[in-house]
């Protein structure tokens, strides 16, 4: 089945990583992979644009079905292969509700991380303002403290919504990005504990961004948060 799947992806991209973790958890190893480069603008290649008019990663194809948004791809894979591999949507209604809540909240965290880490890439030089960067930094600090608080309320050794689920598929890459860019373990002990709990999980370790193997630590943009 995996042989009919193709993933166009970029190393270090949390949206791509989400889909890769899901594929691993659903025992769908052996899918076709095309590792492309943001630096070379390969997401705008004719091959990618033919499948994904937005010219973004990930671009995912299963047979003649195309699913490009990472949340949609993860939900699609869980729906189509529900009985295979790890069940990523809890059956318990309370846990399921929490899973969806944390999963969708993960997008808030991802956006706020991007606005701080990649501010200089996202905003043209003549449009940058110190007040805007200060506002983004304050918003990210509030967001990180919110997730630190969420993790204070889960049992030791537990994940974001009970057992490992799509909440973690979305949430872990965000935390890993924060750690890579210098998140303080002293100020965020629960986020650090969560990172350490999951970083060696087979689905995560197998799909770890190659770029991060080469660069053990990114620029410490978040060290003072």
TrEMBL record:
<feature type="domain" description="GST N-terminal">
    <location>
        <begin position="3"/>
        <end position="85"/>
    </location>
</feature>
<dbReference type="GO" id="GO:0005739">
    <property type="term" value="C:mitochondrion"/>
</dbReference>
<dbReference type="Pfam" id="PF13417">
    <property type="entry name" value="GST_N_3"/>
</dbReference>
<protein>
    <submittedName>
        <fullName>Glutathione S-transferase A-like</fullName>
    </submittedName>
</protein>
<dbReference type="InterPro" id="IPR004046">
    <property type="entry name" value="GST_C"/>
</dbReference>
<dbReference type="GO" id="GO:0006749">
    <property type="term" value="P:glutathione metabolic process"/>
</dbReference>
<dbReference type="InterPro" id="IPR004045">
    <property type="entry name" value="Glutathione_S-Trfase_N"/>
</dbReference>
<dbReference type="GO" id="GO:0016034">
    <property type="term" value="F:maleylacetoacetate isomerase activity"/>
</dbReference>
<dbReference type="GO" id="GO:0004364">
    <property type="term" value="F:glutathione transferase activity"/>
</dbReference>
<feature type="domain" description="GST C-terminal">
    <location>
        <begin position="92"/>
        <end position="225"/>
    </location>
</feature>
<dbReference type="InterPro" id="IPR036249">
    <property type="entry name" value="Thioredoxin-like_sf"/>
</dbReference>
<dbReference type="InterPro" id="IPR040079">
    <property type="entry name" value="Glutathione_S-Trfase"/>
</dbReference>
<dbReference type="Pfam" id="PF14497">
    <property type="entry name" value="GST_C_3"/>
</dbReference>
<dbReference type="GO" id="GO:0006559">
    <property type="term" value="P:L-phenylalanine catabolic process"/>
</dbReference>
<dbReference type="InterPro" id="IPR010987">
    <property type="entry name" value="Glutathione-S-Trfase_C-like"/>
</dbReference>
<dbReference type="InterPro" id="IPR036282">
    <property type="entry name" value="Glutathione-S-Trfase_C_sf"/>
</dbReference>
